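Work Package 4 report. The design task specified in the project plan requires that, given a folded chain encoded as structure tokens, an amino acid be chosen for each position. We show below one input record used in the internal validation round.
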């Protein structure tokens, strides 16, 4: 199932900040986003549910110390799912 990616303002800001600090990671992040559209539960993404105050969200890996925080939401009118990209950064930054 191909899902649409929706980038929140927070994700856009975090993405710009992260890429500025880690310019070599940009290509890997784009590959991860493409894979998320195709199969968000691919083993290479290490997608997992979060716990605690972030328990309604999920995270996946997009490199050694890069995580994407997101949610999967149903579009009631279209009977489809979308992926809301919420945050990106190092493990320490996003958790």
């Amino acid at each position: 199932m191909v899902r649409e990616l929706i980038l929140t303002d927070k994700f856009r800001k975090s993405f710009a900040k992260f890429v500025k600090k880690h310019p070599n990671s940009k290509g890997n992040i784009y590959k991860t986003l493409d894979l998320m559209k195709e199969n968000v539960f691919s083993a290479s993404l290490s997608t997992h549910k979060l716990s605690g105050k972030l328990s309604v969200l999920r995270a996946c890996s997009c490199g050694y110390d890069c995580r994407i925080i997101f949610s999967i939401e149903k579009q009631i009118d279209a009977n489809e799912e979308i992926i809301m990209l919420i945050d990106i950064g190092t493990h320490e930054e996003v958790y």
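The mean pLDDT is 93. Validation will be extended to a larger panel in the next phase.
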